[in-house]
Amino acid sequence: MSFIRQMVAEDWPKYIPGFLLCLFFAFVVMNIHHVLAKYHKADVASLAIPVLEQKIGELKSSGAPVEKVAAIEQKIEKHRHALEKVGGSVGDRWAWATLLYQDLQFKYVAMLLIGGIIIRNTIGVSKIFLPGVGIARPLIKPGIIILGVHYVWSDVAKVGGAGLVLTAVFIFGTALAVMYLCKKFNVPDGLGGIMGAGTGVCGVSAIIATAPVVKAKPRDMAYAIGTILLFGTLMLFVMPYLGQMLDVSQSQFGAWAALAILNTAQLIAAAEWYGEDARNTAVLINAARIMLIPFIVMYTVWFYDLKENVSKEQQGLWNTIKSKFPVFIIGFFILVLLNSMHMPFLGGPKVAHTPFWAMNAVYKWFFAVGFAGIGLSISIDDMKKAGGVAFLVGSGAATAKMVLGLAAVLIIGSELLKVTGGH
Amino acid sequence: MPETRKQNRNNDINDSVDKSLKDTSERVLSSEKREDIWAIIIAGIILLLSAINPDAVYTFFKKTLFMF
Fold it and tell me: 0.80 exceeded by the pTM?
């Protein structure tokens, strides 16, 4: 009974209106996305069917194998199905849908984030909705756990291993550089410490975890969180377009986003925007990254030589690791383990009528509600809280990490960062 | 004398700021743990529902929720 009481916030009714607003916003946007996707597919089908039919004619006349012809016929069937869904026929065009959905990448992630920011900063979000908007963002976590059905252990060992090395180098390198520069420019230890942890590892969570250790002031926390969120928001919109311009592959983009963007929700949003394979890689590398949070706290302690403070507060190494460990990631790895065991009754994300196939249909809805929460909570006034030398050092380090991260993933190549899902 | 009083008042303010920071970080950290456990519970419920009736879960999230 006391466990249930602990799990539910005492003032839970105040979260309901904002949460319902996020559900409604996500529902509307997902339906718009669905309509755009449907007409885009029909537009593609309308152009593809005559080309494929011509190809079949050529193959038949050249005496090509039956299987090859059958494969193309199957493709035509899929395209016809897409046309049927919008009641169209070959020759009809829906170029507007292709322009919005494919060329401008106007998908549910963009609509929720940009739409949310516009709503929050123009018509505004009433105070009654704000607490609930804040609790919608963590719904991305069950979505990440469910995504575990996309991976097998070989992916974790391959991509997660490469990701772990990359993130460890980048996290500790960035944190050390920021802390050193902050000390050099006489930024107070509290602000320098949380800025180093924030730009190095997992943004807001790392700032909150490190703040008591370096005795950061609330104003420092507001500055550091403002800087991290401002940078993350900028990158969230810039990186997908930069990635396309530089012709970065899906898996490379996923790794890049996981290294460069400092907030889990924002990096998942950027990677999902870029594509499914990008998201799969980003989720795995992010899992490796957030597991390093307890170590960044210990690292900050070592850097600022605050061992006495820590022992006074009875936070030994083990206690720190235990209290800062992101528990939800255990759920993700349990699903990876179950998927790796290839148990027939659980199936897989592409094996129809099985539990994992059904779960695969759910995660996008969790992401959508979470992204609605992010969009509606980005206030330009809050962003203005970032400032001073620490802001310059923090955003300089984050930019350097983004550029070096891109170079690292381009050198590593797509293959090592690609999630196979056992296929 | 007024100087000492001023210093005491500053110390009190610093103590209360420290306390408020500690309270905030403890509250946020514990809420983060709570979020993590809720995430595992929600994912567990989805797994259970998907194991009981995969077709119903699939149809609801892939078809029923899309009205247009």
Answer: no
